[in-house]
């Protein structure tokens, strides 16, 4: 098996009505007069799966596959890239990783769990996790519902502002982590920037879109599919508080992906794994083989790479993801 060096990808910038311009500070070349809500850092979805993205597979920026799509790398060098990790059922890279900039509240939404997907093959399972990179003072996340709220209570107000008082507000704190399994009602609050790792899916059911509050053009709501997908208090959901300890911290590990936070003291080691890892820098910078990653930058380290460590500047924080 030939070896592949770490490589970077051209981010896919996605306009959203709730987006802003904060991603410019994270190295993204934002278009003028456009609210960019998402930077798809690692994406390899089939065309047509993400209706708002023309080609949801990143272009490789360096190495022998420069200019090709990430899907081409999977097709032509699957073993070198993925090692023991299987591609998706349609032969794609099995992770979607984004940076989200919420200038305004995102829609209140839910993603389909496995039982919904089984009966609706046009939907794709979507479980995700948020690592909070930045948050304004007083910012909140909406995660699940308040204690005592029932599924019946939620069903009664789907599609209306009556859902808002039922939602559980969680303070948005930089460095905190929140796991959002499929079926959990959630919304990213205004003034928050997160790194989001998820299963490779763009299936989202909007419950409420804050159109009145923000004067936004109303978008389609999906109350029927949402009603069938919502799970109240799913046991897999949890949060981890922020820390400033110089260490490697496990954030999540499930059947789809894992994520760790690194706060290295000049040098760090990648996780020993038989598959690829994805590295994103949220503060500072680091050298990963021949590649330098600055704030906001992302790289894939293929399974066959001999790069297993990195050198970092003081104050660097990064997240590492794998399978």
In short:
The chain is mainly β and 323 residues long. Helices cover 11% and strands 35% of the residues.
Note down, in words, how this protein is organized.
The protein is globular, with a radius of gyration of 19 Å. 11% of the residues lie in helices and 35% in strands. A seven-stranded antiparallel β-sheet has the order 4-1-21-18-23-16-15, with no helix packed on it. A seven-stranded antiparallel β-sheet has the order 2-3-5-12-7-10-14, with no helix packed on it. Strands 17-22-19-20 form a four-stranded antiparallel β-sheet, with no helix packed on it. It is mainly beta and 323 residues long. It has two domains: 7-240, Jelly Rolls, CATH 2.60.120.10; 248-322, Sandwich (Jelly Rolls).
Outline the fold blueprint.
Elements: E1 7-10, E2 12-20, E3 36-42, E4 59-60, H1 70-76, H2 78-82, E5 96-102, E6 108-110, H3 114-119, E7 128-135, E8 140-145, H4 151-157, E9 167-171, E10 177-180, E11 186-188, E12 192-198, E13 205-208, H5 211-214, H6 223-229, E14 238-240, E15 248-253, E16 258-262, E17 267-269, E18 277-283, E19 286-288, E20 291-293, E21 298-301, E22 309-312, E23 317-322
Antiparallel strand pairs: 1-4, 1-21, 2-3, 3-5, 5-12, 6-13, 7-10, 7-12, 8-9, 8-11, 10-14, 15-16, 16-23, 17-22, 18-21, 18-23, 19-20, 19-22
